[in-house]
Amino acid sequence: MQEVHVSDEEENMELKRLKANCTEDYAWTDYMSLPFTQNVISETLRMANIVNGIWRKSVNDIEIKGYLIPKHWCVMASLTSKIGVVAGNNCFTPFGGGNRLCPGLELSRLELSIFLHHIVTTYRWVAERDEIIYFPTVKMKKKLPISVQPINA
Questions:
Q1: Cross-referenced PROSITE patterns, in alphabetical order (predicted)?
Q2: Alpha carbon distances (Å) from 10 to 34, 38, 42, 89, 94
């Protein structure tokens, strides 16, 4: 079986073509059925989460992977690190987790999907070279200047 690679632009243009040829409006399932777009959103949220780490204070001496964290020491868990991350282990936390899971999780993913669908199917852009700054929050050094042109131009 041959692996097929689809880009964000290709899958969004295909959805736009399908909707242009039928009388149905866009639906929630249309946006959630764009796997590449959903992966782009997930990776962006992972890398650019407003909270890039969580500080905790140890209440007892604890050993983790051979390292001793003494009682009362502060540690920071990085939310943007991929080291040791295993799929499905609740390491993806841009919307919190457990009892503190954000109720707007699905709405925000839908809003991001709609925005990406519109911009990818309507415009082309070129970004200037920039650098990611991770501390104290994730941002672009030059604020990622881009040149935008409508597709029809």
A1: CYTOCHROME_P450
A2: 10, 14, 18, 31, 27
DSSP strand pairing (123-127 vs 146-150): antiparallel
Residue 8, SS3 per DSSP: helix
**At which residue do the structure tokens 């707007």 appear?**
104
The reply to whether 2 falls in a domain is no
Q: Which domain holds residue 65?
A: 8-150
Q: How far apart are CA 118 and CA 95, in angstroms?
A: 24
Domain count, the chain: 1
Other Cβ atoms less than 10 A from the Cβ of 126: the count is: 9
Q: Is residue 1 part of a domain?
A: no
In the chain, the amino acid numbered 84 is G
Q: Cα separation of 49 and 45, whole Å? A: 5
- DSSP-assigned letters across all residues of 32-87: HT-HHHHHHHHHHHHHT-S--EEEEE-SS-EEETTEEE-TT-EEEEESS--TT--T
pLDDT digits (tens, 9 = 90+) for 23-55: 889 998 999 889 999 999 988 887 777 676 788
